[in-house]
Give the backbone structure.
Amino acid sequence: MIQKLHGHSGCRLELIDNNGTIFVRKISRSVSYNERLIAQCVKQGIDDTEGFLTPKIFSKGYLKKLFYFDMEYINGLSFTDYLTNIPITSIERYADLFLKIIPSNPIYDGDARGIFINKVNELDSQIIVKSDSVKIAIQQLKHFDWKCIYQGKCHGDLTFENILIHNDRAYLIDFLDSFYDSWMIDISKLFQDLELQWSYRNYFSIDENLNIRLIILKKMLIEKLLQLDQGKNIVLTIYMMLILNLIRIIPYVDSQKDHLFIESALNKINILINKQL
């Protein structure tokens, strides 16, 4: 092993040099997590999202009852950092790239409402101590009609941290199994960064150049989404999914800083929704 790498799922990541072949090994964080990591491995192995690449999977198996898989090492820059330096004229290219995750013929799912309501109720029961902003957010989610849900392939955690840029190509990493597969959930994760700067939460500050790029990219994505059939409903639903994303994070957050971030984020999204975005 050359070194341990930093990840966000709690799994162990190791950079390994095997006789000159360098690869990344991802190891399950527990036996109970094996099934989820297997699903993530399968998702990464079959993903063919237009415009994106994924690290190739070389092998997989078990180490001391923990599932692992070995994959190609991409020595790239996360989109979190990459966006800071790209020319403003290049931003639309990435807006178009992100929208390639939308199928050419989106499939509407009339049964999705029950799935989302069940998820909200499940989270409501899991979170014992709730602030006023969390209570308000959960009630919003319960009363939302969820009538505009479209199925499709779903990375599961499409934040800027999980997009690498290498040799001017975009790679998707750290796939996550999801309670429901929809490209709308992926776009809501992008807005988690564009609207709330989630991937920048540990930065000391965000400079004006980066902030301008975030605003421009968000504006471009919203404009392009509004051009879709049911565009306004799609955008509203994506923001409700963003609230759901934040509520889902709460049980795993243990730092006061992250709790305050989520509280502030919920209040901000609530104001935007009340203003109809």
